[in-house]
Write a structure and sequence with these properties.
The complex is a heterodimer of chains A (263) and B (269).
Chain A (H helix, E strand, L loop, with lengths): L1 H7 L2 H30 L11 H13 L3 H32 L1 H16 L6 H8 L3 H25 L3 H9 L4 H39 L4 H10 L3 H29 L4
Chain B lengths: L1 H4 L3 H6 L1 H4 L6 H25 L10 H11 L3 H34 L1 H14 L8 H8 L3 H25 L3 H9 L4 H12 L1 H25 L5 H10 L3 H27 L3
Classes of the chains: A mainly alpha (263), B mainly alpha (269).
Amino acid sequence: MAETLAKKSGPRSLFFRYGPEIAGLASLVVAALVFELLVRIGVINRFVIPPPSDVIMAFERVVVEEDILGRTGATVFEMIVAALAAVLVGVPIGAALHHSPLWRRALEDWVGAMAAAPIVLAFPLFLVLFGRSPKTIIVMAFFHGLAPIILKTIEGLSGTRKVLINVGRSLNMTSSQLFWKILFPSALPVIFTGIRLSWTFVLITVVGVEYLINLGGLGQLINELAERYDLPGTYAVIFFVILVSVFFFVLLERVELWLRPAR
Amino acid sequence: MAATGEMTAQARRAVAPAISAAPITARHVLLVRVSVALMVLAVWEGLSRSGLFYGEVIPSLTRIATSLGKLLVDPVFFKNLQVTALETFTSLAIGGVLGVLTGIVLGANRFLMRAFEPYVYYLSPTPRIILFPVMIMWFGVGPASKVALGALSAYFAIALSTAAGMRQIDAVLIRVGRSFRATTWQMATKIYLPAMRVPILNGIRLGMGTAIITVLLAETKLSNQGLGYMIMQVYTRFDMPGLYALLIVVFAMAGACNALIGKLAREQV
């Protein structure tokens, strides 16, 4: 029995279980090696695509010389302020719209249009209104992240099961009690889906606007390195931002799964 | 027991939105919308006249309307609109074709789905504009770099939506096609593509939204033509009514494109 288990958990079994994932990862490694080879033999110009080994080596330089951790801190700070503000404003607005069916029917489409609007394009306007400062980035990210939270709060509160409301009703709960003890806890998983979408928008806006107006954290660093034509550094920071983004999304997804009620 | 059976007036009010609501007519909705719009316009005009803001930061509604009118008859605007539209639709076509092909491959093959879909999925919400320096190095400072970035933006949404659509095709439809001995081409044109019409159109809708934004942002960063370039020009001149007018037009066009494809996706086959 022990032998069978050992065999099952061996590398062969691991390959059969995670074969596709290993193949996917391996193909990325092979692609990087092919690029390395093509750049080294001169098929690809190293001033267009730097060799992957140079990009890996550049990570140390951007950490030591470019203070990437400090820049990450600046970006994360802007994100946290905008993201929390979006939650603190969006959830009450969503709850208020849910409470008034007339206002909900009148304004929900407008909020939906706001969610799809290219707000980030208005950055010159925000620059005039708030100056070239982190305030501009935070305000823009806040507006971009607001609509998903409002929409999902309405959806979550509207989706509360009638039986739960009937229980609250039978216990003579007040309006406030009914909201905090029944409606809000029941809507929380859906609200968190809105928060996940909102914070994704916030991340995209913060890094994007930092890059566009050359101010702040990681976005500005990419712009500076590109302007210096430091290709390995530019690629390294872009990969770093992608890794940070992926980590952020995975984290939000895990929290969302954890909040989702068991079926 | 009476307490549990009866609903108090207080609780009735508390759960009103969840249980029942007074009949709301389209007229009520219109009234609220018009009131809100008028209120926003009044507040805007009030702020504009208040002198609280520096210079032209909040121009009066009449000045914005005048700028909007001038913009809509300005040949320079249409020339730039043409450039942006061409870049956006080229990027959507390239991203769309690649996205649909990727989606079909990932949706049809479980091994490839497990191997590569997580990368497509997790890369899709990353800020694409940061790849603009790379696109400039690869494709130069002209329209090609904007098209490439737009195509990349559209690609992820379309690929993911197509892959999901491919997996949702009713197995009965496929069996019916096979039982009629349909050829591969017939299966593709009569079964797969009609069944995936809605997810593909939804993917194109999302992809087009991101492509428009990305192309315009890239134009604001480095370009000498297109609406993004025009936005930066009016910003540099501090022509605030012009900036508002341009943003209104761009927002309206983006919304109209989004609504149009959304309508196509909702229409029954």
